[in-house]
């Protein structure tokens, strides 16, 4: 889907604790840095739909498994991917695409490396029922 990319990330295993790469400013998908935050989601819960009008999202799942669904309103196209330590990639989402996500395991956490600081005026939220998707 135009405006969406997946970037495989390095995992370095160590007997005392593993290293999970996230993002460097030289990586494709880096569109500036505004803030980084973690968000959790409970198993079987769905958060969304949200559309950012200016922010580029860079989503990484270091714990658990999360199913992301991106919807392009213009093309009526869906893009779906499940990210976890087994499918460890960075999901980059350009502005003006709808996104929702579902927790797939008991404990789930994502990291968003956002291109700008949070601004509630910059995002649009709608109810899950407003975009038809079979969760």
- Would you identify the CATH H-level superfamily? Jelly Rolls
Total count of domains: 1
Which CATH first-tier class would you pick?
A: Mainly Beta
Shape: globular
Count of helix runs: 0
**Poorly predicted ranges:** none
Helix content: under 10%
Find the structural class using helix and strand composition.
mainly beta
Q: Identify the strand order in the major beta sheet.
A: 1-9-6-11-4
Q: Report on the biggest sheet.
A: 5 strands, antiparallel
For the secondary structure, the number of strands is 12
User: What portion of residues belong to β-strands?
Assistant: over 45%
What is the gyration radius calculated from CA atoms?
Answer: 15 Å
> Kindly state the mean pLDDT as a whole number?
95
Stated plainly, the CATH topology is called: Jelly Rolls
Gap between N and C termini: 20 Å
Taken in chain order, the helices and strands follow as: EEEEEEEEEEEE
Can you name the CATH architecture?
Sandwich
Describe the structure.
The protein has one domain (4-127): Jelly Rolls. It is mostly beta strands. The chain contains no helices and twelve strands. The protein has strands at residues 4-8, 11-12, 19-20, 35-42, 46-52, 57-63, 65-72, 77-84, 89-93, 98-103, 107-114, 123-125. The model has no long low-confidence stretch (mean pLDDT 95). A five-stranded antiparallel beta sheet has the order 1-9-6-11-4, with no helix packed on it. It has a five-stranded antiparallel beta sheet with strand order 8-7-10-5-12, with no helix packed on it. A two-stranded antiparallel ribbon has the order 2-3. The radius of gyration is 15 Å and the shape is globular.
């Amino acid at each position: 889907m135009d405006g969406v990319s997946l970037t495989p990330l390095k995992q370095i295993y160590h007997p005392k604790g593993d290293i999970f790469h996230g993002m460097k400013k030289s990586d494709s998908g880096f569109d500036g840095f505004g803030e980084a935050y973690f968000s959790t989601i409970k198993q079987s819960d769905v958060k969304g739909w949200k559309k950012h009008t200016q922010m580029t999202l860079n989503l990484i799942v270091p714990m658990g498994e999360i199913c992301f669904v991106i919807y392009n309103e213009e093309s009526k196209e869906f893009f779906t991917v499940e990210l976890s330590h087994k499918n460890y990639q960075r999901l980059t989402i350009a502005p003006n695409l709808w996104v929702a996500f579902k927790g797939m395991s008991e404990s789930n956490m994502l990291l968003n490396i956002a291109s700008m600081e949070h601004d509630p005026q910059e995002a649009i939220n709608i109810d899950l029922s407003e975009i038809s998707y079979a969760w």
